[in-house]
């Protein structure tokens, strides 16, 4: 076998080196968009990097060091067990932080106590409210009414008298339940005090509320959403998905077909929408989520045939009058073949309805923000689809879940998918939370029927935005 | 580059290659368009030689031109610009092909010397037909054939580019050439029969 054939090589080189073909017009649009996108990112890469860095740093700083996020008082749950936290405004409207050591901390937009010391406060008027920790009873007067406020279960109850901001706390004190006519089970109800300028919180008896409300300070129940209990939520969500298609041939003989199919199909933005019930499973940290999940997977099919031929038969009719009364009708059939290029673009949509069964674990709670991680499975109930697909002759044909409207090459139930996500919740109101949940979904089985010559699997990454509504109180 | 058009009352097609390149470096869309129109046809042929079908070739061309516009500032004006663009396209095509893991199998180990081609065929075989036949070669054969015969790379360079031995490159080339010659002969026979 000779290694060289200079004449042949030169002939091929001459033929092809300067050869030119017509370029499809749509290509320039793709290139222009691609270059522009890169150009914007390239020109502003340092700015983007610095912005991203600043964003992340300030975000971490805000959540890590800011005691109150989004205007919520978030330390109430801890104050219920560890001590009392009170803040108020003094006569000139300045906000003060009344601490156990009697010191005043001005300008704090919220409050948190880390110890179990008894604290007191002065409201805008001259009335005083005393609060005590567990086993510690604080006595005070509001509008001439004596109010006792026993604190709930503080483990470090300090039986000493603490004087703060000129009002008095006695300890240990006796509960004056009869005077207040309050059932014992209501005694540890959390109260949320709202002064003219800020929030005040303490644990007190329910009936003390009315008396307190007569003053300039108003008293209400501590929002339950701020005390993490075993709540059940109803969640509604929706968001965009990106679906990656993995296509493999079921047999080596169909590799060429698969390559062609891959070349013609491209990913297209998809979406998910759903609702689910989020209920406590073990404690409050482990939760179970289940409901209905609808997702629509889109893909674009672009098929170009550069040697398309189309044959059209044309019939022309002629009337020949040979003599009077002798007319002949002649029909000429002409077959015309057109050669050219054809481009077919269509959107394939695969829609499915699933039941998610997801277990969620709370990773972090910081004020109104909560971060959960979730894992589970989505069980497909039904699927339906429409679009176009290449047949084995590389010609697009209709794809439809109904066999009357096209080839039903895909399954009507795809089976089980694995699901994993990280969810971030932000408390909006006492019963409503906003949710943001990036997630990954992996289909265990291919979408095609067993008889199909190729297997196509979906891996979905998505970002769900939702609203979570707390059921009950 | 827009100021250039205004200053000298130039229309885009009057620009020299140097001016077009400068315009592309500045990110001027009309210069990029001009560059694309000037070279797209030729570069699509390059891509078609490496791709298995027209769509794959278009993908390569698209990625190749995005790279050209991205790295055009690195062109040193040494040698022809067309050659530089062609090299970018070839590298893009190779990367694209390598994603699919090219197999350099000895598909036809018993292949004898190629048939002698009728001189008539040389004069009458069109570029598109030849391109079509090259595209039908197995991927390993096709890439080595293109790199050596048309792009002019040596076997050593091809071996480095593709991570194979020199001897593999040589044998792939010989077999690719024979296979192509046989395909041309059989196409010619079919044409005569029809």
Q: How is this structure best described in words?
A:
Chain A has an 8-stranded antiparallel β-barrel with strand order 11-12-13-14-15-17-18-19. Chain A has helices at residues 6-17, 26-43, 45-65, 76-82, 177-180, 208-213, 255-264; strands at 87-89, 95-98, 104-106, 120-122, 128-130, 137-142, 145-150, 190-194, 199-203, 218-221, 232-249, 265-282, 286-323, 326-366, 369-390, 396-400, 416-427, 432-443, 454-471. Chain A has 473 residues and is α+β, with helices and mostly antiparallel strands. In chain A, strand 6 and strand 7 form a beta hairpin. Chain A has 7 helices and 19 strands. Helix content of chain A is 16%, strand content 48%. Chain A is elongated and about 100 Å long. Chain B has 194 residues and is an all-alpha fold. In chain B, helix 3 crosses helix 7 (127-135) and helix 9 packs across helix 10 (166-193). Chain B starts with a helix and ends with a helix. Chains A and B meet through helix 1, helix 2, helix 7 and strand 13 of A and helix 3, helix 4, helix 7 and helix 10 of B.
Descriptive key words:
heterodimer; A: 473 residues; alpha+beta; eight-stranded antiparallel beta barrel; three-stranded antiparallel β-sheet; 16% helix; elongated; B: mainly alpha; Rna Polymerase Sigma Factor, Chain: A; Arc Repressor Mutant, subunit A; 10 helices; disordered N terminus
